[in-house]
Amino acid sequence: MSSPTARTPRSSTGTLNTLTKLLISLLCAFGAGLVASLIAVVVMGILRLWTGIPTPVELFGDYVLKHIDVHTFIKLLQTFAPHSKTTPLGLALLGMIGSGTLLGLLYAALVRLKLPLTGYQPARREWLIVLALTAAMTLLAVLLFWNELRQNFFGLPLLWASLSTVLGLLATFAVYNTMLALLYRALLPKQRSEETKHVVQSKRQFFSRLGVAALGIGSAGASWGLIQRYLGQYASYDGIKTPSPGGVTFPITPNDLHYVVTQNPIDPTTNRDLWRLEITGLVDRPGSYTYAEIQQLPSTSRAITLECIANGVGDRLMSTAIWQGVALKTLLERHGGPRPSARFIAFYCVDGYNISLPLDEVLAVDPLLAWHMNGSELPQRHGFPMRVLIPGRYGEENVKWLTRVELTDRFVGGLYSDQGWYNGPLHTTSRIDRPSGHVAVGHIVEIGGIAFAGNRGIQKVEVSTDNGQSWHVTTLQPPLSPDSWVSWTWSWIPTAPGSYTLTARATDGTGETQTSHKQGTVPNGATGYHQVTVQAG
Q1: What is the dihedral of CA 128, 133, 136, 141, to 10 degrees?
Q2: To the nearest 10°, the Cα dihedral for 379, 385, 388, 391?
């Protein structure tokens, strides 16, 4: 009796020629790459919104910003206005999804599966390729974003923040590559087995592909929901200016009216239980403080005016608050003081922002590390739980969400310095707040405004009603501190109807009068006299 002839399984798609197999593989790899990318976006969103770990898209954005010059930066802001932050991030996200889709083709080329397949479970070789791709992608991201890793929007200390970011990258890439392997297998045609009915196998293949499609649609929907939640936390207050109602500037700016500028689409929401202030580098006794411990440090309060480097002549990106905190000198003394080799001081923030300045220059102006603003806990948008106040420096160097103070023997690059922004003492400025529009001939008109020169103080403010041909010394109100702006007034009686150009100029505490040279804010800060035209009648 002869034995039964062995039957060879047949393909569910019949006989496939080489070209057809290649096209099927490419289409399946493309589809698997797209769905795996969408799933990776969901993972990124969850990690970002629930653990504060930055997404690869945000890390890429921070990396690019540090590697372009200031003029390119401004051009990009203008190009993408009014959505100068979200549009580039959206494009970067689409680029990441597109790259992930194309990586599916690379994966298909590496695994070189022979069609039709015999099963849905990836083989050992496929898992090894998944592992290798995950390791390679994580290593590449870590090397590329090395200086961007140390951010965590819930306030983890820098070392833990860096570790959590690396783990976040690893998780994102591991999920992407794992799903890519499983989805690619699920989409490819399978061999038909005589032990299983054809209709059953066809249904299994159909539902497998349907499942991939459903997973893709579900991931797209979840991604959209996470993006909407992200945008719902958008820092829409970026660029808020301090008003002067009725032409009067308050000596102290209320917290909700203080100007705000931020580099972040979403500002940190620092968890006080996770956050630490670290004092490290070239000090004798490095150490750290919890939020409760910094409240026990010896504190002082002082009025300090902040001005943004983007504040144009006569503009209102400038405010004054009463800040309470510990003096930097006092804090460093508690740690044994700077070592002789310390030449620079670097301030690091939980959102990855950092600046570096000459140590002697910083200590000379007696900075504060503040945790209160106008008698209240530091608001989140102003840097909770701690920010730096360096009198005489533009706002970009008065960093928010401080987490580390490090003394070094070298300059440490940062976003603004790498782009080429000015990082010296702020320029003397004066502003006319009133009058505006029309004034009455023969009546007393009060001309008033503010002047500011940082810690240099203001010695004199002069005003002209004839476009600078003659000048009159104004009356100054006593400043709230050596580091605050000064209010000034001068009474004027217009004697004839017509148009008048009012001009103001200030002289700082060193005797140097502000320059009349007009320049814009980019990259060195605005200079020139503020002028206001009024009509007398």
Answers
A1: -150
A2: 40
Nearest of 451, 468, 431 to residue 312 by alpha carbon: 431
Write down which residue in 419, 440, 468 finishes a domain.
Answer: 419
Quote the pLDDT of residue 193: 63
Q: How many domains, in total, are found in the chain? A: 3
**Residue 155 φ/ψ region, left for φ over 0, alpha for ψ in the -120 to 50 degree band, beta for the rest:** left
Q: What is the pLDDT of residues 189-208, one digit of tens each?
A: 988 766 556 666 778 888 88
Same domain, 211 and 336: no
> Which residue type occupies 493?
I
Q: Is 220 found in the same domain as 273?
A: no
Cα 243 to Cα 249: distance, rounded to the nearest angstrom: 7
Question: What is the domain extent for residue 270?
Answer: 250-419
**Short-list 225, 173, 283, CA closest to 49:** 225
Contacts of 276 (CB under 8 A, 6+ apart): 157, 288, 289, 290, 403
Residue type, 112: R
Indicate if 90 and 228 belong to the same structural domain.
Answer: yes
User: Could you report the per-residue pLDDT of 207-258, keeping only the tens digit for each?
Assistant: 888 999 999 999 999 999 999 999 999 999 999 999 999 999 999 999 999 9
For the chain, helix, strand, coil in percent to 5 are 40, 25, 40
- Per DSSP, what are the bridge partners of residue 445? 492
State the pLDDT at residue 118: 84
What is the rounded CA–CA span in Å between residue 41 and residue 166? 16
Give the tokens for residue 218. 């579900």
Pair 331, 293: CB distance under 8 Å: no
488 close to 517: Cβ distance less than 8 angstroms: no
- Domain co-membership, 275 together with 221: no
Over the chain, what is the mean pLDDT?
94
Cα radius of gyration (the chain): 31
Examine the domain organization and report whether 96 and 31 are in the same domain.
Answer: yes
152's CB contacts (< 8 A; 6+ apart) are 52, 53, 54, 160, 161, 164, 165, 350
365 within 8 A of 408, measured Cβ to Cβ: no
Can you name the residues that pair with 318 across neighbouring β-strands? 307
CA 497 to chain centre: 51
- Helices and strands of the chain, counted as H and E runs: 11, 21
Q: What residue spans of 52-146 are helical by DSSP H?
A: 56-66, 70-80, 86-111, 124-144
Q: Is residue 244 part of a domain?
A: no
Residues 361, 392 within the same domain: yes
Scan for tokens 């320049």, then name that residue: 519
